[in-house]
Design a protein that fits this description.
Blueprint: H1 3-9, H2 16-25, E1 31-34, E2 40-43, H3 48-63, E3 71-73, E4 76-79, E5 86-88, E6 92-95, E7 104-105, E8 110-116, H4 122-135, E9 140-144, E10 151-157, E11 163-170, H5 171-174
Length: 186
């Protein structure tokens, strides 16, 4: 579909309901996200390496005792904005408790957001989402690079509502530690 044809179907002002409909209608697995400033972003579906990293992290958390109902992949989170809310779909999220059935979850019980950086999402994950997640008060934001070491950068929210880098390590090293070394207790 051409950009012109796509543009004919996009509402003039996109809401989170519109965004949910766009995600549901896309049969190719693209992710549609909306910044709190109303900027729409579309990313291609994740590849097999991306899925393997998410699976390894999911299994690591599950084997450490986190309930599956609290480890959610590709679930929408609502980001409060000045005029309207934005919506992001992180690769993996860990919650303090089971979440209600909803397309867009509030960030109140969010323990950590994990994004796996893909070539098409690097600028958004490494710059824009760092600012947005900090502004939303998300305590921990982890980025997993797609470099040879699959470097994990762990951001922790500071008192000034910006992130400090708490640690940086290869994914293989992280997976040999306990999540309790990096996260609050269950």
């Amino acid at each position: 579909m051409s950009a012109e044809a796509f543009g004919r179907y996009v509402p003039a002002v996109i809401t989170l309901d519109d965004l949910a409909d766009m995600n549901a209608a896309d049969r190719y697995g693209h992710r549609y996200e909306l910044s709190p400033e109303r900027a729409l972003s579309v990313t291609p579906p994740p590849d097999s390496e991306h899925a393997a990293i998410a699976s390894r992290l999911f299994a690591w958390l599950l084997l450490a005792g986190w309930p599956a109902e609290q480890i959610l992949q590709a679930v929408g989170i609502r980001l409060p904005g000045a005029d309207a809310d934005g919506g992001r779909i992180p690769d993996l999220t860990l919650w303090a408790g089971a979440q209600p059935r909803s397309v867009w979850l509030d960030v109140a019980d969010l323990v950590v957001v994990i994004e796996i950086v893909s070539p098409g999402s690097a600028a958004t994950d490494e710059v824009i989402k760092v600012r947005e997640y900090a502004a939303a008060g998300i305590e921990r934001y982890w980025l997993v690079e797609r470099d040879a070491a699959q470097t994990v950068t762990m951001h922790v929210l500071g008192p000034d509502h910006t992130y400090d880098i708490a640690a940086k390590m290869p994914l293989a090293w992280l997976l040999r530690t306990s999540p309790a070394d990096h996260l609050p207790a269950l």
